[in-house]
Design brief:
Strand order of the largest sheet of chain B: 2-3-5
Distance between the termini of chain B: 71 Å
Largest sheet of chain B: 3 strands, antiparallel
Order of helices and strands of chain A: HHHHHEEHHHHHHHHHHHH
Helix content of chain A: 55-70%
Largest sheet of chain A: 2 strands, antiparallel
Number of strands of chain B: 5
Largest interface: A-B, 18 and 21 residues
Structural class of chain B: alpha+beta
Oligomer: heterodimer
Distance between the termini of chain A: 68 Å
Strand order of the largest sheet of chain A: 1-2
Shape of chain A: globular
Structural class of chain A: mainly alpha
Chain lengths: 413, 179
């Protein structure tokens, strides 16, 4: 089977891989919507969707009621409803852009996946090969570049709708995404400064980040979440803002904007926005897991190779290794999908000025300070500046923390 | 009395925000694993308090006879005119022939009924009761009209200490027509 696969034309391989990834991401987006409903319900102390049951499942003894209770058929019902509902096109919209917006929402959501490695396998020579559609050296840059294109769909949807609330939603979305893109990128820079030692071939590939986190040794096997907690937190907060999830749900806040940018949308076009949001969440949490939580390594200081070695399936079994890595990675990503929904029911939606203040006055300085701190630390390590430099860095950090965390003045209240 | 609420400066953990969010997430997680508090209606039904005024029904006395004598007071008093009674005679050979009259037809249009309970208040025979049936539904307008059989089916028999018709029959047999 491996032979047959390797004998295929590379273009055919790529095409099949792409189809496979889309076939996973798209249903995951749909399942995300169901998970959202069930998890939200559980947090509010209610059972959630548990009614739909196709007639032929009524006769399955245990499984039928269980699946009904789980609400999986509501997923089918939702999908069918979106497909067969009348897809109204309001008369006052700019038709071309109105129809183009949901399609534009899907394109970056499904394109970013190409640069995200979701697993790895050992080839014959004992080298780790990433399971990724395009193992780019600019990895993270490609993800950021393409994913930020997603905001175009929101702006175009808001503008083409030609009505007030969608327009406000689109404006909010664009300002918010630009604001948080800055701190997001800056928070990731220390990670790449850290892994690209001077004199080696520099790379922004996400695969290399995971490789770095699976090294032996105390510092090598550390996940970057423990090494750079500030980066991780800033990245995570920016991720919430980038994916337009609560509490940064400014673009569609139904309390103040009816439905925001998608007010005029319905049926399948609205569904595309919805699935795109979940695809963004999946890709975003995937990037977070790769950067800060060790990718497909089950635990810190415990690479996947070691675990599989204990279980007796070492590197000579590429398929098993690949599947194990994908499973570990997907479990972590799905946990983060849960975290997205968990936070949604915890933190109330911000006011728009609070969103801007948090982005520009809190996260951006924090990300810059964090970058300077790690740049200095790396310089001290690489140039062997010794204890005096460490003391100076520690003092500077403490002073900076005091400056940031000083009690509020009464006038600022 | 008006009083001034002083706005306190935020504490360190409040200004850091993350500890507060984590504390909130702990609370939400507790709710995530807590048992559901909702009642799943069609399967689970709430306990109805005594004296609840649900759907009006007709009841029989402990001997299984209809109490209604088709006096039509409920029909007259009914504010939305939901009750329609067709009075009828009781055949002389029937077991309850000594009862004055009985309804030939008794319809309550539940699309009109407002559950006011005036029919129960006015009924001299305590034959019509608003009981604890509270979910009345149907697919057609005809289905929503309760006829006599349906009303007795819903109402059943209520305990009744009076045995009025028994007393009347006993009095008649003693030769005392006016008890």
């Amino acid at each position: 089977m491996v032979e047959f696969w390797q004998n295929l034309h590379p273009a055919v391989q790529l095409f099949l891989k792409g189809i496979a990834v889309v076939l996973v991401i798209f249903p995951l987006g749909g399942i995300g919507s169901l998970a959202e409903r069930k998890i939200s319900a559980a947090m509010q102390g209610r059972p959630g969707p548990n009614r739909a049951l196709p007639i032929w499942f009524r006769w399955v003894p245990v499984l039928g009621p269980f699946l009904q209770r789980l609400g999986v058929f509501h997923l089918m019902a939702d999908g069918l409803k979106m497909l067969f509902k009348e897809d109204a096109l309001p008369g006052h919209v700019n038709k071309v852009y109105f129809v183009a917006a949901p399609i534009l929402a899907m394109i970056p959501a499904l394109t970013t996946v190409t640069a995200v490695p979701f697993g790895a396998y050992l080839n014959g020579e004992g080298e780790l090969v990433p399971l990724v559609l395009a193992n780019l050296d600019v990895g993270i840059l490609a993800v950021f570049a393409v994913s930020s294109l997603g905001v175009y769909s929101l702006i175009i949807a808001g503008w083409a709708s030609n009505s007030k609330y969608p327009f406000l939603g689109g404006v909010r979305a664009s300002a918010q995404l630009i604001s948080y893109e800055l701190s997001m990128t800056l928070s990731v820079l220390p990670v790449f400064l850290w892994i690209n030692a001077p004199g080696t071939n520099g790379s922004l590939s996400l695969f290399n980040v995971v490789q770095y986190q699976s090294q032996p040794g105390l510092l090598g096997g550390t996940w970057f979440f423990f090494l750079m907690p500030v980066s991780a937190v800033v990245f995570l907060v920016s991720l919430f803002a980038e994916t337009n999830r609560l509490p940064f749900d400014m673009a569609e806040g139904e309390a103040d904007l009816v439905g925001g940018f998608h007010t005029e949308y319905g049926a399948f076009k609205w569904g595309l926005f919805f699935v795109a949001e979940y695809a963004h969440m999946i890709v975003g949490s995937g990037v977070f897991v790769l950067l800060f939580l060790g990718g497909w390594n089950p635990l810190p200081w415990l690479p996947l190779e070691k675990v599989l070695g204990w279980m007796g399936v070492a590197g000579n079994h590429p398929i098993l290794f690949g599947i194990a890595s994908i499973v570990v990675f997907l479990v972590k990503v799905l946990f983060f999908i849960f975290v997205f929904m968990w936070v949604r029911w915890t933190v109330p939606r911000f006011r728009y000025d609070q969103v801007m203040k948090l982005g520009w006055q809190k996260l951006l300085p924090l990300a810059i300070g964090n970058l300077i701190f790690y740049a200095a630390a790396i310089a001290i390590i690489e140039l062997h500046l010794g204890v005096a430099a460490w003391v100076a860095l520690a003092l500077a950090t403490i002073v900076a923390l005091f400056a940031i965390l000083r009690p509020q003045s009464r006038a600022a209240l | 009395m008006a009083y001034v609420v002083e706005r306190k400066p935020l504490s360190l953990s409040e200004r850091l925000y993350i500890p507060q969010v984590l504390a909130g997430m702990k609370t939400t997680l507790k709710h995530f694993f807590a048992p559901n508090v909702t009642m799943e209606y069609p399967e689970q039904r709430p306990a109805i308090p005594p004296g609840y005024r649900g759907v009006p029904t007709l009841v029989k006395d402990p001997n299984g006879r209809e109490k209604c004598v088709s006096c039509q007071l409920c029909e007259f008093v009914c504010p939305p005119k939901a009750i329609r009674i067709t009075p009828g005679e009781i055949p002389p050979d029937a077991a309850n022939a000594h009862v004055e009259k009985g309804p030939k037809a008794f319809d309550i249009d539940m699309l009109r009924c407002i559950y006011c309970g005036l029919c129960q208040e006015v009924c001299p025979e305590e034959a019509i009761w608003l009981q604890n049936q509270y979910s009345m539904s149907g697919y057609t307008r005809e289905e929503m009209v309760n006829n006599k059989e349906r009303l007795y089916e819903l109402g059943g028999t209520l305990p009744d200490q009076h045995f009025k018709w028994d007393k009347k029959k006993a009095a008649e047999q003693r030769g005392n027509a006016h008890h």
